Amino acid sequence: xxxxxxxxxxxxxxxxxxxxxxxxxxxxxxxxxxxxxxxxxxxxxxxxxxxxxxxxxxxxxxxxxxxxxxxxxxxxxxxxxxxxxxxxxxxxxxxxxxxxxxxxxxxxxxxxxxxxxxxxxxxxxxxxxxxxxxxxxxxxxxxxxxxxxxxxxxxxxxxxxxxxxxxxxxxxxxxxxxxxxxxxxxxxxxxxxxxxxxxxxxxxxxxxxxxxxxxxxxxxxxxxxxxxxxxxxxxxxxxxxxxxxxxxxxxxxxxxxxxxxxxxxxxxxxxxxxxxxxxxxxxxxxxxxxxxxxxxxxxxxxxxxxxxxxxxxxxxxxxxxxxxxxxxxxxxxxxxxxxxxxxxxxxxxxxxxxxxxxxxxxxxxxxxxxxxxxxxxxxxxxxxxxxxxxxxxxxxxxxxxxxxxxxxxxxxxxxxxxxxxxxxxxxxxxxxxxxxxxxxxxxxxxxxxxxxxxxxxxxxxxxxxxxxxxx
Length: 471
Known about the structure:
This protein is of the alpha+beta class. 30% of the residues lie in helices and 27% in strands. The strands form five sheets. Strands 1-2-3-5-4 form a five-stranded mixed barrel. It has a five-stranded mixed sheet with strand order 12-13-16-18-17. β12 (303-311) and β13 form a beta hairpin. The radius of gyration is 29 Å and the shape is flat.
């Protein structure tokens, strides 16, 4: 009988894992760990020790935690692949470092288990960055095996019904989730910067309104009456306008009891905003602004290092604008086919602005505006863009290609007689609203001096990308 049970257990990976968990509990080991303080993230280690040569080792002690994604045991050595926050690193485990008993415990771990390890950084002779493990601790025992790694998770039904497994097995799905987080956050920041209050309005409505859709109905026991899950946030937001809040918005869930397919969910998120004393043009500008901010956050990943608003001191009262410094950090996957990159200094994960058009005198990257939105040419402005490129070729204002150790971008948005006169005098180019003028770092500094901003700490150097946008 015992042999039959053993056979059944061996044929059922879930039962095998449950038996391992029971054995841990019987031995007085908590299979679900406790809080632990990590010294680094896996991504930070990959970046910090990228310089290690093959076969190099260090005495730098680190503590990290993550999920085991692969395991390979070779006699008295074991290799584990640890994943944390979408980044992987190899664990190099030796019996003479762990001891026979702990090495046996490590070999008994399963793919999918969460562990914390302490060790030193090294790179194997085959070039794999690794942590040489001195000790480890089980943080959470996984009872269900992950899908087989070679084929991955491809069944659509499983992917949609078990999103957590989809996130574990498919990095591109995780990237989509992360982009959504960035989009929502960017929209929220942009709206707040524009003076809007974010509010929360009721989900349950006694009278449905704000849209033409079939609602979900629920019963409110305390009032003994039916209520409706909201189909729109319109009416409560408008009531706030009546109450005196001039700018309000809400990012919230709506519920419409209608059709469903892989691209349409009865439960979905909207952003709705209202502004007193505005009109159609004002709302169009607002919409353009937050969409640009969302696109920049999701795709270009510009990190603002400094933002200064200015009013010309002693000059034309209309002379105003903003100066921004940013470091570009597009994801490596996004520009995988780009012909050139430039890494940011100080070890930041930044493939630089693609300067493949810089030699023609017109960098093709988008720049970040003060409110977080890129400064883009208007739709339909292709002829004007071609004209700008031709002008820039003959102009001393052409920015040099960014050197490999630079990824800093300085942008100026300015309007008024001072900036106009400087462009016409120094660059020999006509001033046109909306036009973008590439500058060298020296020209950028000279412009700031002209605008009485020379005392600000902008820290641009030769090779940095600079751009002036005319208002």
